[in-house]
Amino acid sequence: MSVFDQLLKVKKQRGAGYLVLIDPDKQSIDDATTLAVHCQDYGVDALLVGGSLLFAHQFDVVIQAIKEECNLPVIIFPGGTRQISPYADAILFLSIISGRNPNHLIGEQVIAAPLLKSMKLEPISTGYMFIESGNITSAQFLSDSSPIPREKPDIAVAHALAAEYIGMKMCYLEAGSGAKYPVPEKMIAALSQHTRIPLIVGGGIRSPEEAYAKVHAGAGFIVTGNILEKNPDVAMIKAFADAIHQGE
Ligand code: 1GP
């Protein structure tokens, strides 16, 4: 079964899925592996690996180490074409559709596509949308892309519909890692009402209650990163997983 089909199955069976982001720049290999094993044991559905930059030259090594210890699907969440590894199970094949920078709409993808083919890495075509979140995030700055105003759900809906009609499989609403304000529920609800592709929501989600509110509004998948990097506590992982799997 493809990783995308596994994600759809999780969403169907558990109401929504919980994805934990591991940024190789922010953790040692040992810490990343320990976190991955805790995630597997306490209810996380899949791991995302990636980051806005790549200071540490250990992308392959981190993914290999995680795969040795943990059976969860490992999906690359690439900050650029240097973050591609044959050891992962799939990659979010992102196009920054909220921006108008052609390089991040199609240029980087053209460079990456033959590499993915040769590595037999499953691409999961994803419309990536930045949502204004109270500060300029690393991903916005580095990709030279403006976010969608947080009080304009209609603009977000139009983008998500375009993603669906182009044939993208998922839509990722990104407030940015460490965002001051996460993606508003009103916007998630509008997208969930008007589009059929699953919504991934991440950036600035700091509590299980917030995660639950996003799922209740219509998020299909919740991503957390920072909160577990700061506090890789198993009780916290379980609390997030339980809140997100409310449809179980
Ligand atoms: C960033 O959505 C992720 O792409 C995670 O954000 O680190 O703020 O949880 P946080």
Structural account:
It is a single chain. With 248 residues, the protein is of the alpha/beta class. It has one domain: Alpha-Beta Barrel (TIM Barrel), CATH 3.20.20. Helix content is 44%, strand content 17%. It has 10 helices and 8 strands. Strands 1-2-3-4-5-6-7-8 form an 8-stranded parallel beta barrel, surrounded by 8 helices. Strand 2 (46-49), helix 3 and strand 3 (74-76) form a beta-alpha-beta unit. It is globular. The model has no long low-confidence stretch (mean pLDDT 94). SN-glycerol-1-phosphate binds at residues 21, 174, 177-179, 202-205, 223-227.
CATH homologous superfamily annotation:
FMN-linked oxidoreductases
Give a short account of the largest sheet. 8 strands, parallel, barrel
Along the chain, the helix and strand elements come as: HEHEHEEHEHHEHEHEHH
Provide the number of structural domains.
1
Number of strand elements: 8
Short description:
The chain has 10 helices and 8 strands.
Notable characteristics:
248 residues; TIM Barrel; binds SN-glycerol-1-phosphate
SSE layout and pairing:
Layout: H1 3-14, E1 17-22, H2 29-41, E2 46-49, H3 59-69, E3 74-76, E4 90-96, H4 102-119, E5 122-130, H5 138-143, H6 153-166, E6 170-174, H7 185-194, E7 199-202, H8 208-217, E8 221-224, H9 226-230, H10 234-244
Parallel strand pairs: 1-2, 1-8, 2-3, 3-4, 4-5, 5-6, 6-7, 7-8
